[in-house]
Amino acid sequence: MNVSLQGVGMTSLRTRERMIKRLADQGIQNQKLLEIMRDTPRHIFMDEALSSRAYEDTALPIGYNQTISQPYIVARMTELLLDSSSHLRNVLEIGTGCGYQTAILAQLVDHVYSIERLLPLQKKAKEHLSELNIYNVSYLYNDGHLGWADYAPFDAILVAAAPEEIPAQLLQQLTAGGVMVIPVGLSGGPQTLQRVWRKGSSYQIEILEEVTFVPFLSGKD
Questions:
Q1: pTM, entire model
Q2: For residue 161, what are the domain limits?
Q3: Positions in the chain whose pLDDT score sits under 70
Q4: What DSSP assignment string belongs to 67-118?
Q5: What is the pLDDT of residues 132-167, one digit of tens each?
Q6: pLDDT computed for residue 10 by the predictor
Q7: Given 3, 55, 123, 136, which residue has the most CB atoms within 10 angstroms?
Q8: Whole-angstrom Cα distance, residue 43 to residue 80?
Q9: Cβ neighbours of residue 151 under 8 Å, at least 6 residues apart?
Q10: How many domains does the chain have?
Q11: 1 lies in some domain
Q12: Are strands 191-199 and 137-141 parallel, antiparallel or unpaired?
């Protein structure tokens, strides 16, 4: 691994180990997930000026009024998906962003289908994942509300932005028994992380904890 991926000082393996201990203390139990988060260089997904803060438990700006989620949220949302099935074949991700959440997911499931509405961010994400030799990801530049019907139904859906209510088209693209993890609520107001199970033609919603996410916007830029 080259030095930029390996990290030094505040991006070193020792710093990452502290992040993993903190995640375990916060209740993350999936050992494979923790190992992957330890070994995936979060610092390459952000501007070099912020890289020394990469392993803090905080969201950080990535440009275009978007953020990279704090490590706890990435771990929590991923673990909620993994708990739903012993084998996730295809996962739809809404909001590729810088690609960090995508990279974590892609190392735990067969294939990730990732949608991003901001083309410059999608381009950067592709570069980051290519640098890490992660290739089981398909990318779509589009409005995330529409999902990706060509590859539906999905075993799981992870949404990295908060709509005021769960988009109906995403619900319809879940397989029977599938699960969606999504923040729901007002921009700048109260939001909750929710896990949605598809039970035949109905849905069961589990409200988990308060969160803060960027708004789930329509269209593409």
A1: 0.93
A2: 59-211
A3: 1-11
A4: EEPPHHHHHHHHHHHHTT-S---EEEEE--TTSHHHHHHHTTSSEEEEEES-
A5: 999 999 999 999 999 999 999 999 999 999 999 999
A6: 63
A7: 55
A8: 24
A9: 90, 92, 113, 138
A10: 1
A11: no
A12: unpaired
Residue type, 172: Q
- Would 51 be classed as within a structural domain? no
Q: Give residue 68's identity as a one-letter amino acid code.
A: I
* pLDDT for the residue numbered 188: 78
Q: Rounded distance, CA 15 to CA 8, Å?
A: 9
Q: Catalytic site residues?
A: 69
**CA angle, 85 as apex, 82 and 87 as ends, to 5°?**
90
Per residue in 125-134, is it b (16+ CB within 10 Å) or e — as a string? bbebbeebeb
Evaluate whether residue 145 is within a structural domain: yes
Tell me the two tokens of residue 108. 């735990």
Q: How far apart are CA 124 and CA 96, in angstroms?
A: 10
- Rg of the chain over CA atoms, in angstroms? 16
SS3 148: coil
Across 155-194, b (16+ Cβ under 10 Å) vs e yields: bbbbbbbbbeebbeebbebbbeebbbbbbbbeeeeebebb
109's tokens: 């499931």
Is residue 128 situated within a structural domain?
yes
